[in-house]
Amino acid sequence: MSRTLRRIGLVLAGAIATGAILAAGARFHDGPLGPLPGGALRAGELVPSPPADWTHVRVGETVELETRPHAPWSVTTWAVVHEGGLYLPADFLNPIKRWPVFVLADPEVVLRTGGRRYPLSARRVEDPGLIKALRQAFAAKYGITEGSASARIEVWFFRLEGR
Predict the structure, then answer these.
(1) What distance in Å separates the CA atoms of residue 39 and residue 144, rounded to the nearest whole number?
(2) What pLDDT sits at residue 17?
(3) Which of 35, 46, 79, 147 could form a disulfide with 63 if both were Cys (CB 3.0 to 4.6 A apart)?
């Protein structure tokens, strides 16, 4: 029995060590590494002036967002274009998501989508009517049903704009 427990302990320790190494390594990776936050977004054409209307920009299911310019932290997140504007949702109360806190402290971000990087500023949306419309736009894009847990959580939205 003690041999079995020892083996289980070694396997768990190995898994924890591997996870820690991957998480640390991801910080030096060009962008997020799967679900792990990454470092600075380096690859892709830099577009210094973002479009006034994002309708014709290739915004897929997810985008990559770099925050915290002094110590870059990048994540993969959802995005939607609504009435020409580009918006990101943030489940602010989720303790795993740190990027909204970073954006509140420093709104300068870099967005990567469609092989291009855009230096932008993220501004929190506070207009109740726009928030309602954004919830509907995200529900339509991502198949969020009205009674689901995702439809009930508090979500903050950020509009991405030129600096």
Answers:
(1) 30
(2) 46
(3) 79
Q: Which residues neighbour 36 within 8 Å (Cβ) at sequence distance 6 or greater?
A: 22, 23, 26
- For residue range 79-90, list pLDDT tens digits in order: 999 999 999 999
Helix/strand/coil for 162: strand
Q: Which domains are present in the chain?
A: 45-162 (2.30.110.10)
Distance of CA 30 to the CA centre of its chain: 14
